[in-house]
Amino acid sequence: MRWLGSVTNAHASCLVKLKAELGMEGRVEQQRWLLLLFLVVQLLLMGAFLYQNRHHHSFTSFFHFLIQERPEGREELPFLVQISPPGIRYQDVYSNLSQIQPMDISEEDLPNCPIISPYINGPLKVMIPENLTMEQVVEKNPLVELGGQYRPPDCWTRHHTAVVVPYYGQAQNLQHLLFHLHPFLQRQQLHYAIYVVNQVNNTAFNRGKLRNVGFWEAMQEEDWDCVFFHDVNLLPEDDRNLYICDIFPAHVSVAIDKFNYRLPYRGYLGGVFALRPIHYLRINGFPNTYWGWEHEDDDIAARLKLSGMLLSRPHLLFGRYHMLEGQDPSHKQSPQTPGLLARIHRRWRHDGLNSLGYRLLSKEVQPLYTNLTVDISPPAPGAPVTG
């Protein structure tokens, strides 16, 4: 009887274990079905969203946009040339822009722009014509309005971007940037404007303060939802590098030809930097106290960290830039000095937009940009400061 009882107990124990295992498998199977149902619902919702926004591209075209021919990893390619490297389709930045034509309807009746612009191609040639004149640049961009403003004439865009360019007398670089950047932005179907902040007087270059001035003046004109701070000597090489803002501030120029298309050092934030106005206010703008180009990038990185924000970057294949010849104000690595982070921590809430002082000498609405001429030299003790 004892033997029979022990067998019965063992049998009962096995049944309990078997039921538990079957129950676990049932729950796993149920979770799989729930996950599959969730994915199906997400696809249906996305399809409805694309249809509602009159998006004319299928999911296939979306993935093609992401995976179309790209340079092989770590390949270094020549730019400012007439011939594209074999096996890779590079288009001129002005190709197919003639297809953009105004529609004979009111602005209220314009359709929404598609989520993915049909004019985006991917890798672009960087070719600047010899003896280029500003009149030729204007002629190449007939849809750009005074002040460097542009709105897609055939659809209603959801993206509004101000491009702020700190400037310190690099006239040829500015001309080349305008020649290349205007069609680049038009390909992305953005509403945008370009603001050139021109520093005068013989003080050292102060990129941070010029950025603050450009932001402040731009926001007086339009309710921009994204601001790109753009060095005058960098030309983007891939129009999949979208000039729109995400949920995080973004360092965009992550792969510059001068640095073999890699970041020159960890923590580098020079070149092209983008953020929403709310992000800008949260970090108190940029520092006003760096004359020259020492440690400003370190300061910006510290401000992001201190304000609790993450930094985003595009893929190295998209965030590619050609650097124009000439003085390079934004890409010199300087080692951190002892105590730098501690000093930034003490003063970042008091050194920025809330302490900005400058004199706006003139505001000129040019055909391709808005020119802001400012005096940002340190005021004499006791002198009034306006801004």
From TrEMBL:
Regions crossing the membrane: 33-51
Subcellular localization, as worded in the UniProt entry: Golgi apparatus membrane
Cofactor(s), by name: Mn(2+)
Listed InterPro entries: Galactosyl_T, Galactosyl_T_C, Galactosyl_T_N, Nucleotide-diphossugar_trans
Keywords, alphabetical: Glycoprotein, Glycosyltransferase, Golgi apparatus, Manganese, Membrane, Metal-binding, Signal-anchor, Transferase, Transmembrane, Transmembrane helix
The Galactosyltransferase C-terminal domain, residue ranges: 251-325
Database matches in Pfam families: Glyco_transf_7C, Glyco_transf_7N
Coiled coil location: none
Pathway participation: Protein modification; protein glycosylation
Topology within the bilayer: Single-pass type II membrane protein
Record-linked CDD domains: b4GalT
Signal peptide per UniProt: none
Principal subcellular localisation of the protein: Golgi
Residue ranges occupied by any Galactosyltransferase N-terminal domain in the UniProt entry: 113-246
Enzyme Commission identifier(s): 2.4.1.-
Family membership: Belongs to the glycosyltransferase 7 family.
Summary of the function given for this chain in its UniProt record: Responsible for the synthesis of complex-type N-linked oligosaccharides in many glycoproteins as well as the carbohydrate moieties of glycolipids.
Protein name: Beta-1,4-galactosyltransferase
Species in which this protein is naturally found: Ceratotherium simum simum (Southern white rhinoceros)
Name of the encoding gene: LOC101389306
